[in-house]
Amino acid sequence: MRCGLIRSFRHKAEQLALLLFYSDTNTLLNAFVEWVIARNSVNQVLGSLPRILVILDRVEQFHTDSRSIDLSTIPSLLTTEEFRRSGLFGMFLRERGFFTESMQERAESSDIRRIESALLLAKGKPWEKSLRKYAVDFLAQKETLSARTRRLYLRSALALLNFSEVAKIADLTSDHVKAFLKSKPGHRASLFPWVKFVKEITGHSLAIPNKSASKEPSVNAIADMVGRLVSAIRSASTKKARLAMVAKLLSVLYGVPLEKVLSMDRRHLDISDGIVRLQIDNDWVKIAAPVDRFLSDAADESRSGKNSVKLFPGRMANDGLSVSAVKYYLKRYECS
């Protein structure tokens, strides 16, 4: 049965390879096929070959005017999410040395590329120069802003300008902002830097409507979520599911953003004299039962897996578990 599966896998890969133009991409695809077979992972990859073809085709399109291609461009052509979703192909590329960055570094590079793509969307618009000045001179000079934050700020400004259909930023009014936020309230927090920039450039002020008060989750709601997570952790059938829900449990109990929990290294955990402590910001917090046992077990499970320093390791070495993976398991175990 296994031989038949391998033959089917090879045949499908050969059919897809006919759609590739360059020998380098064909060679890379063939190497990946043999790598998968050697790992006994054919079942995991069989259905994802078309997605891998899309990646290789993008590499070829990038070099459409060249006689040969430079495979080292692969990292620059993939977003962080695409790399994560590529599964074993991403692991294969990393083993081959194409990806040497951590997830955080890849995310930074990806966000910078997406900033450039956003600026291309403004090409030819009457306010293109103003938006570019906002991105390059205003946001980029603020060293405390991450590339992701700059991207979100730029995206909101671009969305507002497109929505308002103004010829220049001086034509923007508070009514434009109010109407825009009524249809897209999620952009509100990201518009404050843009409003400040507009005032510096044009001298007139834009008002951002007050945010409607949101209710903090009640004690009963938090207790209910904790109870469901504890039950799910105890019944989870896989190590990855347990790790995901322990991370979410810590986030709920201690009010720490999930992204921050997932980025924690093993050095943030201390287990001594039967007491489990977790470093949150600059404080070492004693973890109470039964969460201490869950966290201790999670640390043992992560340590027994890949050579990752992460407390909640993801697919690749030195990468933390992703937020989307946690959301998947929360939905699967009805904890969302």
Number of strands: 3
> Which strand order do you get reading across the main beta sheet?
1-2-3
Low-confidence stretches: none
Strand content: under 5%
Largest sheet: 3 strands, antiparallel
Helix content, binned percent: 55-70%
Rg, rounded, reads: 24 Å
- What's the number of structural domains? 3
The number of distinct helices, counting runs of at least 4 residues, comes to 17
In oligomeric terms, what are we looking at?
single chain
Description:
With 336 residues, the protein is mainly α. It folds into three domains: 2-95; 104-202; 219-332, no CATH class. The protein contains 17 helices and three strands. A three-stranded antiparallel sheet has the order 1-2-3, with helices on one face. The chain is flat.
Which SSEs are present, and which pair or pack?
Layout: H1 2-17, H2 23-38, H3 42-45, H4 49-62, H5 74-77, H6 80-85, H7 88-95, H8 103-121, H9 128-139, H10 147-164, H11 174-183, H12 192-202, H13 219-235, H14 239-254, H15 258-262, E1 269-272, E2 275-280, E3 283-286, H16 291-304, H17 323-332
List the defining traits of the structure above.
17 helices, mainly alpha, 3 domains, 336 residues, flat, three-stranded antiparallel sheet
Report a brief summary of the structure.
The protein is mainly alpha-helical. The chain is built from 17 helices and three strands.
